[in-house]
Amino acid sequence: MKKVAIITGGGKGIGYGVAEAFLEAGYNVVITGRTEETLKQAKANLEEKYKSTVLAMVADGKIEKDVKNVVEKTIKEFGQIDVLINNAQASKSGKSLIEHTDQDFMLAIDTGLLGTFHYMRECYTYLKETQGSVINFASGAGLFGRIGQASYAAAKEGIRGLSRVAATEWGPDNINVNVICPLVMTEELIKWQKEYPDAYNKTIQSIPMGRFGDAKKDIGGLCLFLASPEGSYISGETITLQGASGLRP
């Protein structure tokens, strides 16, 4: 039976690249997001390219019933959940801390931290059955305090804390929980480059390979390893793809 991966925010950017990697590896894939048209287009493109059914569902991670619906339909369609990848995140990146409103701040918390919590909680029972994997996404914005990313960094650091606790609590269930801090050339990063060119140049110069990661090959490949039998012993780790080694949280 094929293994099953849920990838939040899988309709575009990093999530789309990760979905490609898992489809190529023979997984059944579920992608979620908040924009129906984006998901429909992603589903069509992925199914045409990989000749495999992709389950695409509109869901807002902050809404419990949306998340429950995703999990229920995944089980109904595929019968199990082996991997949960929490990639979805919205934020007001580019705004300074003092420019943030409460609404701006909560956008990052709701879509990132709260959404990650909801998906982890609802998937736990099924991950326990498969001795599966949780792969959460944080960011160098939180690790290094990048300018213009106050709410985003706060949400991502919250995700790291949540993941540390889950790794400890779920270890006896043979569920491994890890965090990836990827740096990939996406639309958001291009926006950040334009708004903060000095910070962008400093960042790229600090990367030994002199490039940002590739969503499918680098990020998707690492996720596949962490979800594999060979990587199942790794848990409670924060892995940053910015040229640094893995950092124990």
Q: What separation lies between the terminal Cα atoms?
A: 34 Å
Question: DSSP strand (E) fraction?
Answer: 5-15%
Counting DSSP H or I runs of 4 or more residues, the number of helices is: 9
Count the strands? 7
CATH class: Alpha Beta
In CATH, the architecture is 3-Layer(aba) Sandwich
Radius of gyration: 17 Å
Shape: globular
User: Mean of the pLDDT scores?
Assistant: 92
CATH overall fold name: Rossmann fold
In terms of per-residue confidence, which ranges show pLDDT below 50 for 5 or more consecutive residues? 243-249
- The CATH superfamily is identified as NAD(P)-binding Rossmann-like Domain
The quaternary structure here is single chain
Query: Biggest sheet: strands, sense, closure?
Result: 7 strands, parallel
